[in-house]
Q: What sequence folds into this?
Protein backbone atom coordinates (compact mmCIF):
# COMPACT_ATOMS: atom_id res chain seq x y z
CA UNK A 1 0.00 0.00 0.00
CA UNK A 2 1.28 3.47 -0.95
CA UNK A 3 -0.06 6.23 1.34
CA UNK A 4 -1.32 9.49 -0.14
CA UNK A 5 0.44 12.34 1.63
CA UNK A 6 -1.31 15.26 -0.07
CA UNK A 7 -4.11 15.81 -2.57
CA UNK A 8 -5.15 19.17 -4.00
CA UNK A 9 -7.11 20.47 -6.93
CA UNK A 10 -5.16 22.51 -9.50
CA UNK A 11 -7.97 23.29 -11.94
CA UNK A 12 -11.34 21.95 -13.00
CA UNK A 13 -10.99 18.13 -13.11
CA UNK A 14 -7.20 18.39 -12.58
CA UNK A 15 -5.59 17.18 -9.35
CA UNK A 16 -2.14 16.86 -7.81
CA UNK A 17 -1.45 13.80 -5.66
CA UNK A 18 1.70 13.31 -3.58
CA UNK A 19 2.35 9.67 -2.71
CA UNK A 20 4.87 8.03 -0.39
CA UNK A 21 6.98 5.82 -2.67
CA UNK A 22 10.64 5.92 -1.57
CA UNK A 23 11.93 3.20 -3.91
CA UNK A 24 10.46 4.94 -6.95
CA UNK A 25 11.64 8.38 -5.80
CA UNK A 26 15.23 7.15 -5.46
CA UNK A 27 15.33 5.88 -9.04
CA UNK A 28 13.13 8.37 -10.88
CA UNK A 29 14.45 10.31 -13.87
CA UNK A 30 12.83 12.99 -16.01
CA UNK A 31 10.41 11.60 -18.58
CA UNK A 32 9.53 8.39 -16.76
CA UNK A 33 6.11 7.27 -15.54
CA UNK A 34 4.38 4.93 -13.09
CA UNK A 35 1.43 2.57 -13.39
CA UNK A 36 -1.22 2.54 -10.68
CA UNK A 37 -3.94 0.18 -9.52
CA UNK A 38 -6.09 1.77 -6.88
CA UNK A 39 -7.66 -1.38 -5.45
CA UNK A 40 -8.15 -5.08 -6.15
CA UNK A 41 -10.93 -4.48 -8.69
CA UNK A 42 -9.29 -1.50 -10.35
CA UNK A 43 -7.67 -1.20 -13.76
CA UNK A 44 -4.00 -0.42 -14.34
CA UNK A 45 -3.34 3.05 -15.73
CA UNK A 46 -0.22 5.19 -16.27
CA UNK A 47 0.66 8.66 -14.99
CA UNK A 48 3.86 10.55 -15.75
CA UNK A 49 6.00 11.69 -12.85
CA UNK A 50 5.66 15.43 -12.27
CA UNK A 51 8.08 15.70 -9.34
CA UNK A 52 9.76 13.64 -6.62
CA UNK A 53 12.12 13.78 -3.67
CA UNK A 54 14.64 10.99 -3.21
CA UNK A 55 15.57 12.38 0.21
CA UNK A 56 11.99 12.54 1.49
CA UNK A 57 10.68 9.49 -0.38
CA UNK A 58 7.68 10.95 -2.22
CA UNK A 59 6.52 11.33 -5.81
CA UNK A 60 4.03 13.81 -7.28
CA UNK A 61 1.46 12.86 -9.89
CA UNK A 62 -0.91 15.17 -11.75
CA UNK A 63 -4.07 13.72 -13.26
CA UNK A 64 -7.06 14.86 -15.24
CA UNK A 65 -10.37 13.16 -14.56
CA UNK A 66 -11.26 11.45 -17.84
CA UNK A 67 -12.46 7.99 -16.78
CA UNK A 68 -13.59 5.90 -13.86
CA UNK A 69 -10.13 5.31 -12.33
CA UNK A 70 -8.95 8.91 -12.51
CA UNK A 71 -12.28 10.00 -11.04
CA UNK A 72 -11.82 7.57 -8.16
CA UNK A 73 -8.25 8.76 -7.54
CA UNK A 74 -9.43 12.38 -7.56
CA UNK A 75 -11.85 11.55 -4.73
CA UNK A 76 -9.19 9.95 -2.51
CA UNK A 77 -7.69 11.99 0.32
CA UNK A 78 -4.49 12.17 2.32
CA UNK A 79 -4.20 9.13 4.57
CA UNK A 80 -5.78 6.74 2.08
CA UNK A 81 -3.59 4.31 0.15
CA UNK A 82 -3.01 3.15 -3.41
CA UNK A 83 -2.80 -0.63 -3.65
CA UNK A 84 -0.23 -0.98 -6.46
CA UNK A 85 2.27 1.53 -7.78
CA UNK A 86 4.93 0.32 -10.22
CA UNK A 87 7.84 2.37 -11.53
CA UNK A 88 9.75 4.23 -12.60
CA UNK A 89 8.92 2.89 -16.07
CA UNK A 90 9.92 3.92 -19.58
CA UNK A 91 13.12 5.36 -20.93
CA UNK A 92 14.21 8.65 -19.36
CA UNK A 93 14.21 11.76 -21.52
CA UNK A 94 17.48 12.37 -23.37
CA UNK A 95 19.15 15.37 -21.72
CA UNK A 96 21.49 17.42 -23.91
CA UNK A 97 23.80 20.22 -22.80
CA UNK A 98 24.63 23.72 -24.00
CA UNK A 99 21.66 24.10 -26.34
CA UNK A 100 18.52 26.19 -26.66
CA UNK A 101 15.61 23.87 -25.97
CA UNK A 102 11.97 24.87 -26.23
CA UNK A 103 9.63 22.80 -24.06
CA UNK A 104 5.96 22.93 -25.01
CA UNK A 105 3.34 21.72 -22.54
CA UNK A 106 -0.39 21.56 -23.20
CA UNK A 107 -2.99 20.89 -20.50
CA UNK A 108 -1.84 18.24 -18.04
CA UNK A 109 1.19 17.72 -20.31
CA UNK A 110 2.62 20.68 -18.42
CA UNK A 111 3.10 18.37 -15.43
CA UNK A 112 4.99 15.83 -17.53
CA UNK A 113 7.32 18.39 -19.09
CA UNK A 114 8.16 20.07 -15.77
CA UNK A 115 10.90 17.61 -14.64
CA UNK A 116 12.35 17.56 -18.17
CA UNK A 117 12.73 21.35 -18.09
CA UNK A 118 14.41 21.09 -14.71
CA UNK A 119 16.87 18.43 -15.89
CA UNK A 120 17.67 20.37 -19.07
CA UNK A 121 18.36 23.56 -17.15
CA UNK A 122 20.50 21.77 -14.58
CA UNK A 123 22.56 20.38 -17.51
CA UNK A 124 23.35 23.90 -18.69
CA UNK A 125 20.80 24.41 -21.45
CA UNK A 126 18.86 27.56 -22.17
CA UNK A 127 15.26 26.47 -21.64
CA UNK A 128 12.25 28.33 -23.02
CA UNK A 129 8.89 27.05 -21.86
CA UNK A 130 5.58 27.44 -23.68
CA UNK A 131 2.54 26.27 -21.74
CA UNK A 132 -1.10 26.58 -22.62
CA UNK A 133 -4.67 25.63 -21.84
CA UNK A 134 -8.14 26.48 -23.06
CA UNK A 135 -8.66 29.16 -20.40
CA UNK A 136 -6.74 30.86 -17.61
CA UNK A 137 -8.58 28.73 -15.02
CA UNK A 138 -7.14 25.55 -16.60
CA UNK A 139 -3.53 26.75 -16.78
CA UNK A 140 -1.53 24.79 -14.20
CA UNK A 141 1.91 24.85 -12.54
CA UNK A 142 2.89 28.34 -13.69
CA UNK A 143 5.03 28.96 -10.60
CA UNK A 144 6.79 25.60 -10.87
CA UNK A 145 7.47 26.09 -14.59
CA UNK A 146 8.81 29.61 -14.04
CA UNK A 147 11.36 28.14 -11.62
CA UNK A 148 12.76 25.65 -14.17
CA UNK A 149 12.84 27.78 -17.33
CA UNK A 150 14.79 30.83 -18.47
CA UNK A 151 11.69 32.24 -20.12
CA UNK A 152 8.07 31.11 -19.86
CA UNK A 153 5.42 31.93 -22.46
CA UNK A 154 1.76 31.52 -21.49
CA UNK A 155 -1.07 30.92 -23.96
CA UNK A 156 -4.81 30.42 -23.65
CA UNK A 157 -7.21 29.53 -26.43
CA UNK A 158 -9.66 32.24 -25.35
CA UNK A 159 -7.05 34.92 -24.64
CA UNK A 160 -7.88 35.12 -20.93
CA UNK A 161 -4.15 34.88 -20.06
CA UNK A 162 -0.95 35.40 -21.99
CA UNK A 163 -0.98 35.04 -25.77
CA UNK A 164 -4.39 34.43 -27.31
CA UNK A 165 -4.21 31.17 -29.25
CA UNK A 166 -2.69 27.74 -29.10
CA UNK A 167 0.79 26.73 -27.97
CA UNK A 168 1.65 25.79 -31.56
CA UNK A 169 1.06 29.38 -32.64
CA UNK A 170 3.42 30.68 -29.96
CA UNK A 171 5.94 28.01 -30.93
CA UNK A 172 5.96 29.11 -34.57
CA UNK A 173 6.37 32.77 -33.64
CA UNK A 174 9.37 31.87 -31.51
CA UNK A 175 10.93 29.75 -34.28
CA UNK A 176 10.64 32.67 -36.69
CA UNK A 177 12.82 34.94 -34.55
CA UNK A 178 15.09 32.80 -32.36
CA UNK A 179 17.48 29.92 -33.21
CA UNK A 180 16.31 26.71 -31.51
CA UNK A 181 18.27 23.45 -31.28
CA UNK A 182 15.51 21.18 -30.00
CA UNK A 183 11.78 21.21 -29.26
CA UNK A 184 10.11 18.87 -26.77
CA UNK A 185 6.31 18.78 -26.82
CA UNK A 186 4.03 16.98 -24.37
CA UNK A 187 0.27 17.19 -24.23
CA UNK A 188 -2.78 15.97 -26.14
CA UNK A 189 -1.82 13.86 -29.14
CA UNK A 190 -3.35 16.35 -31.57
CA UNK A 191 -1.23 19.16 -30.09
CA UNK A 192 1.95 17.10 -30.39
CA UNK A 193 1.06 16.25 -33.98
CA UNK A 194 0.68 19.91 -34.96
CA UNK A 195 3.75 20.98 -32.95
CA UNK A 196 5.76 18.42 -34.92
CA UNK A 197 4.29 19.74 -38.16
CA UNK A 198 5.35 23.28 -37.24
CA UNK A 199 8.92 22.31 -36.36
CA UNK A 200 9.31 20.19 -39.48
CA UNK A 201 8.97 23.37 -41.51
CA UNK A 202 11.91 24.89 -39.62
CA UNK A 203 13.99 21.70 -39.63
CA UNK A 204 14.16 21.62 -35.82
CA UNK A 205 14.50 18.19 -34.15
CA UNK A 206 11.39 17.45 -32.10
CA UNK A 207 10.64 14.95 -29.37
CA UNK A 208 7.21 13.98 -28.12
CA UNK A 209 5.98 11.81 -25.27
CA UNK A 210 3.35 9.42 -26.58
CA UNK A 211 0.25 8.88 -24.47
CA UNK A 212 -0.77 5.53 -25.94
CA UNK A 213 -3.33 3.36 -24.18
CA UNK A 214 -1.27 1.22 -21.82
CA UNK A 215 -1.80 -1.87 -19.68
CA UNK A 216 1.21 -3.68 -18.21
CA UNK A 217 3.95 -1.14 -18.90
CA UNK A 218 6.62 -3.79 -19.54
CA UNK A 219 6.24 -4.47 -23.27
CA UNK A 220 4.43 -7.79 -22.80
CA UNK A 221 0.86 -6.93 -23.82
CA UNK A 222 1.42 -4.73 -26.87
CA UNK A 223 -1.49 -2.43 -25.99
CA UNK A 224 0.63 0.72 -26.29
CA UNK A 225 2.06 -0.09 -29.69
CA UNK A 226 2.62 2.77 -32.07
CA UNK A 227 4.40 3.24 -35.38
CA UNK A 228 7.60 5.27 -35.58
CA UNK A 229 9.77 5.42 -38.71
CA UNK A 230 7.49 2.77 -40.21
CA UNK A 231 8.27 0.28 -37.45
CA UNK A 232 6.16 -0.94 -34.54
CA UNK A 233 7.32 0.42 -31.21
CA UNK A 234 5.96 0.08 -27.67
CA UNK A 235 5.56 3.38 -25.83
CA UNK A 236 6.14 1.74 -22.45
CA UNK A 237 9.61 0.29 -23.11
CA UNK A 238 10.82 1.99 -26.31
CA UNK A 239 9.50 5.37 -25.21
CA UNK A 240 7.51 7.24 -24.16
CA UNK A 241 9.78 9.77 -25.90
CA UNK A 242 10.01 9.52 -29.70
CA UNK A 243 10.96 11.59 -32.73
CA UNK A 244 7.83 13.64 -33.42
CA UNK A 245 8.61 13.83 -37.13
CA UNK A 246 8.65 10.01 -37.41
CA UNK A 247 5.41 9.16 -35.57
CA UNK A 248 2.42 7.86 -37.52
CA UNK A 249 -0.04 10.30 -35.95
CA UNK A 250 -3.06 8.99 -37.81
CA UNK A 251 -2.57 5.53 -36.36
CA UNK A 252 -1.94 6.85 -32.85
CA UNK A 253 -5.05 9.02 -32.87
CA UNK A 254 -7.23 6.19 -34.15
CA UNK A 255 -5.93 3.82 -31.46
CA UNK A 256 -6.64 6.39 -28.74
CA UNK A 257 -10.28 6.43 -29.85
CA UNK A 258 -10.81 2.67 -30.09
CA UNK A 259 -12.35 2.21 -26.62
CA UNK A 260 -14.54 5.31 -26.53
CA UNK A 261 -17.76 3.31 -26.17
CA UNK A 262 -16.39 1.19 -23.32
CA UNK A 263 -15.03 4.31 -21.61
CA UNK A 264 -18.44 5.94 -21.70
CA UNK A 265 -20.00 2.85 -20.09
CA UNK A 266 -17.31 2.78 -17.38
CA UNK A 267 -17.83 6.45 -16.58
CA UNK A 268 -21.53 5.83 -16.00
CA UNK A 269 -20.86 3.18 -13.35
CA UNK A 270 -20.96 4.15 -9.66
A:
Amino acid sequence: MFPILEKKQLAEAVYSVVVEAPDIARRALAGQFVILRLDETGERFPLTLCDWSAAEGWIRLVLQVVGRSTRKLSLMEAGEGILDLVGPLGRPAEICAGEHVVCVGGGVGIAAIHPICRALREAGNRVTGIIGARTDDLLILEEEMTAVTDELVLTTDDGSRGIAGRVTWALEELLKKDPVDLVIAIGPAIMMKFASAVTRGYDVPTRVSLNSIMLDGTGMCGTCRCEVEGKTRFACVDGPEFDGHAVDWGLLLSRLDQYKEEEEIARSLP
About this structure: DSSP finds eight helices and 16 strands in the chain.
